[in-house]
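In response to the reviewer comment on reproducibility (Comment 2.3), we provide here a single inverse folding case reported in full, input and output, so that an independent group could reproduce the run without further information from us. The structure tokens appear first.
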């Protein structure tokens, strides 16, 4: 695969590449001449038409599918020769061990070779390309937490910030403004009010401007979720003028999606701030959102293999120290099975 394709892989979201890999597996397993196979093909065609990125991701999966028939070391050597990757590294060992299929009931040799290959493909993507994005984020950051960590910091103006798990931010203070760039993850802000400079939290999806206030910012998929506890904030997308800012009042939440800001709406403070108390709180929460949260609190990746399953609801209070306990509740209370490829890749189907 050439450098142009590698660039395209970097631009496509991991979640979209995972979805394309799952379509690969389902199509290869199915009897496309049967009624269920014809429906699957129709659903797949509809998915392709929904977004040009879907077609691009599937095309990449077609190429990578064949590439995985060769050892992962060869794939990485061909893709990233300039980075001097050690093909005997722990990352590659992780991939090899992850493809030894296990479930919570013990060792399982997967009968579906297509699904097995798709699973390894997903993990190969995360191992091969995920480290690049993380390296760039680390290079840009002043503060960063690993999976399972939290970090409280106090800035020179006596503002208090708490970084949630797997979070990175940069601090750019000057004489005119106090600017924080949230690069990934989630953070809680208690902004000192005895400073006349505006306090701005910027993300790739937009910015939050305040003076003194308490609020939470979470980056999730392709959006930033802003939840205001105290004070008043102004929300702007990158292309909005200041006089068009959306105002949030205490108890309100809004979503920044680059070009759009959602209508402010009430939010559940207990659930949003639960991570500050080392808890995960879900109230009738869609499984897709639950898994997005779990993927931030544990090593590896949980993948839901069907869009229908993402809408199933989960409720409960769990410890952030034992995120896999949520997986047990999911499989014990919902019509879902899990396939565990070590602890680094879990499929829910």
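Designed residues, in position order:
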């Amino acid at each position: 695969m050439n450098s142009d394709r590698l660039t395209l892989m970097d631009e496509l979201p991991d979640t979209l590449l995972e979805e394309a890999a799952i379509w690969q597996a389902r199509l290869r397993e199915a009897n496309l001449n049967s009624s269920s196979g014809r429906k699957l093909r129709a659903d797949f065609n509809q998915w392709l038409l929904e977004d040009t990125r879907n077609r691009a991701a599937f095309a990449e999966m077609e190429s990578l599918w064949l590439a995985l028939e060769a050892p992962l070391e060869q794939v990485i050597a061909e893709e990233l020769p300039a980075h001097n990757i050690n093909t005997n590294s722990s990352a590659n060992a992780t991939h090899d061990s992850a493809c030894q299929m296990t479930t919570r009931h013990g060792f399982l040799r997967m009968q579906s070779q297509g699904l097995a290959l798709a699973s390894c493909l997903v993990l190969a993507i995360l191992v091969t390309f995920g480290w690049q994005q993380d390296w760039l984020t680390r290079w840009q950051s002043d503060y960063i937490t690993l999976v399972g960590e939290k970090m409280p910091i106090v800035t020179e103006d006596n503002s208090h910030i708490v970084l949630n798990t797997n979070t990175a931010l940069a601090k750019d203070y000057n004489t005119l403004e106090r600017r924080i760039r949230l690069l990934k993850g989630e953070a809680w802000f208690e902004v000192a009010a005895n400073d006349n400079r505006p306090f701005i939290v910027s993300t790739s999806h937009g910015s939050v401007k305040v003076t003194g206030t308490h609020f939470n910012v979470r980056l999730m998929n392709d959006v930033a979720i802003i939840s205001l506890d105290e004070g008043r904030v102004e929300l702007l997308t990158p292309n909005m003028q200041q006089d068009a800012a959306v105002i949030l009042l205490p108890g309100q939440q809004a979503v920044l999606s680059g070009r759009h800001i959602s209508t402010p709406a009430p939010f559940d403070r207990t659930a949003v701030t639960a991570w500050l108390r080392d808890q995960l709180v879900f109230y009738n929460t869609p499984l897709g959102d639950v898994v997005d949260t779990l993927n931030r609190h544990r090593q590896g990746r949980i993948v839901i293999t069907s869009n229908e399953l993402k809408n199933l609801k989960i409720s409960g209070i769990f410890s952030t120290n034992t995120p896999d306990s949520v997986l047990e509740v999911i499989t014990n209370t919902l019509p879902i099975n899990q396939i565990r490829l070590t602890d680094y890749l879990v499929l829910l189907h």
